[in-house]
């Protein structure tokens, strides 16, 4: 592992979907939000983020629309779909069970 | 799954727009990141560098995006193919073997398909050919299921039928076409007015026949066949309007038909059939070929029902001529193809078997290759590569091999079509139209791709089971137990299929030999024959006799000629094998019109000695048996068996009606049986009548030469032209050539099936050798341990060979059963050999078993030369 702060395998989709809960965001916004909310404990590289976004889009968990910014740049905004919200709910439940389980193991180990 | 592929395809088709979107999105990200860093107080240059660094290089991210959209797989395909070709170049033996094998199977299947397609599947070259039918008279009481039609009956049918847009007749006729230095007799059909309209055929040049051409006394006109136009008239484009001398009368050429204009009986010329009043009333002479084009709303059954009804009417109205005479409608296509369908379907079946052998062989080869690939794949899988990534090189390799195999197969198919042209039976309808066309090429590509898909599916099936620990942990270098089992099945199947082909071609070889060795009853070496018809040239009997005598004398004077004879028919000569003669033995009570029949041949006295037909009893015919002498005949042994089994035939009186009223004749001798019409059937009863007592106009001369009879061939037309330029000659050939024509179909089938069988056997041997080699590699560790523990090399060898033989036994057993069924299908091509002939099965099994042992021997010897210590160390 090059960087311990790299996103745990399998949780990136969860993070992206959660960060879109409050409304539409562009890629940089999502990365920024994850970084801020995790107090810089979790870093999402662009090389992982964008393919994940496109994958989620292909699966119809999120949808995208293009907007033209003030400086005439095209910007792509993502938002959750109904299917995405449902998946998010399942993923959050799974994550909670997982965290509780890991915590239980840790406690037992006295860590 | 489907929508994902669809999306991927759409993305690939729009890849420019998609790529621009990637770039824009990343550009936006970059701009925002820089702004953010600047706002945080970083210098713009520094911010830019940092932003780019976190982006991980725009290129890398774009690649990842491309991958997410499936664009890479399309781009990678090209790369994979290049990589695959590089890998294959490192093992050229494997590549060539697979390409050659696929090419062989595909090529054979493609060539045979071309023949089946050209002859059986493609419609006839006429408009709406499915509506074209042939109409026949029948007379079941004398065994005539398909007889030609009498002129009056044809005219009645024309008047009374309502099922056809046209009913047409053709009278197979021949005329003497006079060229500069020779006169040739050519097929010239006299056709009724409906003939060309019935076919809806358009001429290539000029016109077809018109109503005014059929007026009695009209100017003689002729329509010319394309081949005749090319061969005899030099393809002259200005031929329409020119004059041809036919039967010594000028005929004006009015049109030339396009190539491929052919009916069951080919003709060089077409002329109007203008029957005179006696012909118009003839209900007895059945000689017309009758055709019809069904109306749109009339079925074959409907037409048959109508014709049956009309036949019944005619029976009531004309009991004298039409009692017991029925009628039949048969599709033109069935008549045209005749018995050839069986030949072609047999070949198609055989080529399908060969194709299966090649697929089994390639599969076995490929499995070995996969075994090698497996270890590499296992390592990569352990390092986290996706399965798709792992499969791609193998899939690409399979695809590349299949494509090359397909290309090779098309080449082989082209060659195969040439071979079919060269060797195919000359009377195979439309033989020369057989070509490797678009459909055949498409088939070749589909077959090649299908074998590619088989290889691909096998690769995926294998790789699915790749699990990092098993493959890496296992000590074997290739394959697993499962892949060995699959390979054993593939090789066993090859042996089974090879067995089927080998048994089939073995039966054909033995039939072929039996046919060639059949007691023909006459000699065929150093003999030459040709036929002339003298209908109008010598109306007086003395003059005709003079002509025949003169011709025989002139031919005898030619250099190298040993003997000359003449007869009305000749063994093996198609269409001139004699007329039917009514036979009434003395004292027998026979209903008129239902006399038993024999073949009747009218001969010159020298006929028997010239052809070497042996005299059994009594005497042969001599020069004294002329019109002044007693009426005599000579019969063959089959005739004796049929008509006089209990009484000595020599000296008996027999009533013989050959093309005339019955006349009593005395049997003076018995000659040996001859196989005249077919070589592969029983001899028929024949009665030989002296020509001098019953001259016929169809004269077939037979010349025995001291040297090669073919050398004499060019001299014959010129000699005959000098004797009488009005008399045409036809069917000039050596008797060897006639035999050749008769065994051609047999030999054609034999050669192709033999080639298929040889290929299958060769491939099966390659398969066995490969499998055993593989087994030895797989089990080298075990063998090493056992040899270290004291097993003798002989025991190891014996065990390996035993294993090969067990597999061969199962394969050959299964193949034997399949061959039993296949041989039944071949039975119509067999002669004097039973399809259940055990010798053939035993020989095929013995040959394949021996070859299996030989193929397994090399690898077994290698196994026992293993050095135990080294094997164990390596393991």
Brief synopsis:
Chain A has four helices and three strands, in the order αβααββα. With 111 residues, chain A is of the alpha+beta class.
Label this structure with key terms.
heterodimer; A: 111 residues; alpha+beta; Arc Repressor Mutant, subunit A; three-stranded antiparallel sheet; 4 helices; 14% strand; B: 875 residues; 4 domains; twelve-stranded mixed sheet; six-stranded mixed β-barrel; 27 helices; 23 strands; 16% strand; elongated
Folded structure, characterized:
The complex is a heterodimer of chains A (about 110) and B (about 900). Chain A starts with 11 loop residues before the first helix and ends with a helix. Chain A has helices spanning about 10-20, 25-35, 45-60, 80-110; strands at about 25, 60-70, 75-80. Chain A has a single domain, classed as Orthogonal Bundle (Arc Repressor Mutant, subunit A). Chain A has about 110 residues and is of the alpha+beta class. Chain A has four helices and three strands; from the N terminus they run H-E-H-H-E-E-H. Chain B is an alpha+beta fold and about 900 residues long. In chain B, about 55% of the residues lie in helices and about 15% in strands. Chain B is built from 27 helices and 23 strands. In chain B, helix 18 (about 480-515) packs antiparallel against helix 26 (about 840-865). The radius of gyration of chain B is 38 Å and the shape is elongated. The interface of A and B includes residues 32, 46, 54, 73 and 74 of A.
How many DSSP helices of chain B? Answer: 27
- Number of DSSP-assigned strands of chain B: 23
Distance between the termini of chain B: 43 Å
CATH overall fold name of chain A: Arc Repressor Mutant, subunit A
Tell me the Rg of chain B in angstroms: 38 Å
Q: Give unreliable regions of chain B as ranges.
A: 467-479
Task: Say what oligomer this is.
Answer: heterodimer
* Biggest beta sheet summary of chain A: 3 strands, antiparallel
User: How many structural domains are formed by the residues of chain A?
Assistant: 1
Q: How many β-strands of chain A, per DSSP?
A: 3
Strand order of the largest sheet of chain A: 1-3-2
**DSSP helix fraction of chain A:** 40-55%
Provide the number of structural domains of chain B. 4
Q: On the 0-100 scale, what is the average pLDDT of chain A?
A: 83
**Average pLDDT figure of chain B:** 84
Query: How many whole angstroms does the radius of gyration of chain A measure?
Result: 16 Å
N-to-C SSE series of chain A? HEHHEEH
